[in-house]
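Worked Example 4.2. Consider the chain below.
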Amino acid sequence: MVYDIDMLRTFYASYAKRVKAAQQASGKPLTLAEKILYTHLYHPEIQPRFRRGEDYATFRPDRVAMQDATAQMALLQFMNAGKETTAVPATVHCDHLIQAYKGVQTDLPAACQVNREVYDFLQSVSAKYGIGFWKPGAGIIHQVVLENYAFPGGMMVGTDSHTPNAGGLGMIAIGVGGADAVDVMTGMEWELKMPRLIGVHLKGSLNGWAAPKDVILKLAGILTVKGATNAIIEYFGEGTASISATGKATICNMGAEVGATTSIFPYDEQMNAYLCATGREEIARLASACADCLQADPEVLAQPEKYYDRIIEIDLSALEPYINGPFTPDAACPISDFAEKVKANGYPRRMEVGLIGSCTNSSYQDLSRAASLARQVKEKALKMASPLIINPGSEQIYCTARRDGMISAFEAVGGTIMTNACGPCIGQWKRVTDDPNRANSIVTSFNRNFAKRADGNPNTHAFVASPELAMALTIAGDLCFNPLTDTLTNEKGEQVKLDAPAGETLPRNGFTVDDNGYIAPPADGKSIEVSIHPDSERLQKLEPFAPWDGNDLIDMPLLIKTKGKCTTDHISMAGPWLRFRGHLENISNNLLMGAVNAFNGKTNWVLNTLTGEYEAVSAVAKSYKAKGIPSIVVAEENYGEGSSREHAAMEPRFLNVRVVLAKSFARIHETNLKKQGMLALTFIHKDDYDKVQENDRISVFGLREFTPGKPLQIKLRHADGSEDTFEAAHTYNEMQIKWFKAGAALNL
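Applying the procedure from the previous section yields the following structure tokens:
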């Protein structure tokens, strides 16, 4: 089935003409990213020449996708917009709230029972406003979007940071917070800083143990977790054609780990084949008819250094498998050097669990190649040294993999098949272990490996690798095992070597599915009542935040000065807290509980300057709020890295935190803070971070003259009576300043 076919036919009928107009208006050859961005400008008749990384532009995306954890807050906001239906096609996908414990047969029914109130809310809101609804168990949002909605040349936003997965089908797909999604669903202008362009030239083709995942794992080591902030990564070169559409999606998906706005590949036969295999032959024909508009112009490919802000070359033929971690996805290491890294750093050598799946690596090809290794266990008289967990990407993937013998291959070696959902990747793993705090090592095919991310244990050393490498290390149970060179001792005492993985890019007999889990909205849902019980612990109607009172912020107490990495996981933890994603007051109890206090090295233990006692961060914030006192958070680099969860911005706003002053911000989180009416400021001189003391009273001056490009003044009044003053920068434009003054973007 092709969803939204009329919209797609209309899109392609005018796409080539719009690209030509953009080329003429810009007066230069265009990259693929520029073609898609310029053809989606909200005011295409203007066609100004934007300065990359500086100017803001407004866009009209084609669609919106929301996962269940973030959809709650997004739809609660949309319900206040006064609209009868969404302005663009939108979908909700129930994938985040399902716990991975015993396996799909037990876990899915349990999740449907535990989360019934939330699922009923999401389904009823979807039905009322014309939004497509994908039931629990239908699959992981990004795999489902790739199979059903992504299309070459399109533009979409999604309330999840890994929305760029759709770049595997040549789509500009950007992760956003719920307020941004509401802008698009209401037909308003959606704003984005015009991204810089990083061109990645792929040469050669993958072979042996190397997988598409290794491309982005290597790139993460080059760019680091913030190296692509406010940039689009555009892949080009002959090597792109050798990578499957789902392999391309894997690479684009993990671009979020280097801060990229999104990532994209040019249209080719691999995409055409995937569209046809997933029942979208008409879309393949329409895209093929304008294929030259779905890749960079020839002049760009001939002289890429003239058109991209940075060029990185990767030779796929020479690429070896990578394994990244622990605790950060950019700690890249080729497998040939990994054993030495493990020994040198004293990482727990025993590999205790292997996990395959997540939105990044749960396609048919991923499972096919991993299953080829699982079959070798019996063929070579081996035994699994570690437990194996599998999360298929969608019901379609699961049904097809079951028919083709992959599921039985995993089960034959003791693998546990979990629900088609995020599970451990989003912290929804009820791990059974002898000690929940013991140092241990796991290997996953996921995208993130922050401390506590998978199982809540801060001492779990999580390493990210391809499904193939994760499977091999699970068989060996040894982090120092290199399947390219090392052997294993089988039950006969023989030394055997694993053969390189092999598998099918697409199923030879086509995809199959019993029930894909989709529920279409009724033709007219206006009469549907969406009820939220006033005593609900999981859902709460939103009240507008108060507008700015017109005054500078004077003598704010410091809520916390964070030390080191402070991701959205640290600001608003997932795992068991996911159940409160629709209840702002309740989820605010987890505010910054994972952040490290720079003054004592502890988490969730900060000074309450009103009492002189140390308490949880949220408790101190509530104490200040109760007395009408605004507070401030001070942080280091790339504050808000990771998930797009806008709760990390809404919680501090709800508890009257008015300012976050950091060395730098992750893109999505900075936007989320602005949307909620907060001040996101950066140190002009990063050493000024060191001047902030625990008992400081901190003021922000210049808000009456708040204008784009003009720094604000910070004064630190120390406990001994001395003071420090310095300037702080910001990136607010005129519209964003209006958001601040109104109290939040939605207040406008």
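The first strand starts at residue 56 and ends at 59. The longest helix spans residues 5-26. Compare this with Example 4.1 before moving on.
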